[in-house]
Amino acid sequence: MKAMLAMLITTTPFIEGRPVRDYRGAVYSQSILGSDLVLDLMAAIRDFIAGRSKSCERVLARTREAAMANLLREAERLGANAILAVDLDYNTLGPNGSMMMVSVSGTAVVL
Fold first, then answer.
1. Candidates 3.30.110.70, 3.90.780.10, 2.40.128.270, 3.40.50.720; correct CATH number of 2-110?
2. Contact between 7 and 83 (Cβ < 8 Å)
């Protein structure tokens, strides 16, 4: 966890006042959330009642965090101390969109 705190992550292509000393390369990560019938049913009921689906939000947040953790490990492996231009995407996969994939990418650099 300590390494995660030291890594600077931003969606911008540069950080004002912090010039890039070395580009280490593009880094990518994906995390896939499988469909869970019970979770989907609970979400549908909550959405129908006009409430927020907190259980789905928590699962999606865990999937996003897993993708980000993998991205950090990849950048660390390249010896980077920052990731610039981070892009996060959500896509559905599988029959009838039964799975969700969180994809994240960025540029690993040394500031």
1. 3.30.110.70
2. yes
Confidence of residue 3 (pLDDT cuts 50, 70, 90): very low
Q: Tell me the pTM.
A: 0.76
**Quick one: which of 19, 10, 7 has its CA closest to 78?**
7
Query: Residue 33 class from Cβ within 10 Å (0-12 exposed, 13-18 middle, 19+ buried)?
Result: buried
Q: pLDDT tens digit string along 59-105?
A: 778 889 999 999 999 999 999 999 999 999 988 777 776 678 899 99
| DSSP reduced 3-state for 13 | coil
- pLDDT of the residue at 34: 72
Contact 7, 78 (CB under 8 A): no
Terminal-to-terminal C-alpha distance of the chain: 20
- Taking the C-alpha atoms of residue 62 and residue 19, their distance in angstroms, rounded to an integer, is 32
